[in-house]
Write the structure tokens for this entry.
Amino acid sequence: MKVVHTIEELRDQLRGQLNVSFVPTMGNLHSGHLALMKMARQHGDPVVASIFVNRLQFGPNEDFDRYPRTLANDIEKLERERNVYVLFAPDEREMYPEPQSYRIQTPPVLGDILEGEFRPGFFNGVSTVVMKLFSCVQPRVAVFGKKDYQQLMVVRAMCRQFQLPVNVLAHETVRDADGLALSSRNVYLTPQERAEAPQLYRQLQAVAQRVRDGHSDVAELEGLAAQELERRGWEMDYFSVRRQRDLLAPSREEVQAGEPLVVLAAAKLGATRLIDNLEIER
Ligand code: PAF
């Protein structure tokens, strides 16, 4: 695997390649990331991965400074798996040599609800860096995880609206044996919090099951799940059943008619904010 730190080196490595498959990450790689790279390998060649902790997508009180940066370890993991041909690991000066005043404006509604409401500017920062990374890598395929469900939809909308020739593929969320979705931020959890953390997924599963059983008052289900998590010490941002197609709330008629739904949640456990979601298959 070639590790490159500049856009020029990256372009040298990729000259003439028309079938590049790309996985953007912020590093501290876990098995979820490695699964994305494996999928990328099945859909293109060569595979490029990037590691860049993108300041633009962090709010002023978020964890940019303490976000785990583990490049040497990440390189070892990628070398072991042998799916990645080039790792692009730029520093901040390389990605943002001048203040990034051009930004990608995210679509109203999709960019403003759920994560967009609780992390203002987040999708704007994600879209801007993904656009820049796509411009550097020029992939034909890019792989994103469904754990960041709304991010996946925002990136797809961006590609559609800017006619970017990138096929955005989605990988299922990878979980630990107890159901906790893998996330680079799980390292922040204390042992007690780690033991509690799978509860978020359990509540998503419970709500999905009730909907599959025919319960159509989703507001009631959301309220009960949020209450239970709060009782256990979680601080809720949202727990919400939405339509898969646009992440808007479904009407009762739509729930009854079998509209494809997804239940999404974000909440803090101690100082750590976790997100997760589950598509409701019916
Ligand atoms: O999902 C992530 O790790 C980041 O949001 C991404 C897509 C790499 C952009 O910084």
User: Anything to note?
Assistant: Residues 24-26, 54, 57, 126, 129-130, 148, 151 surround pantoate (CB under 6 Å).
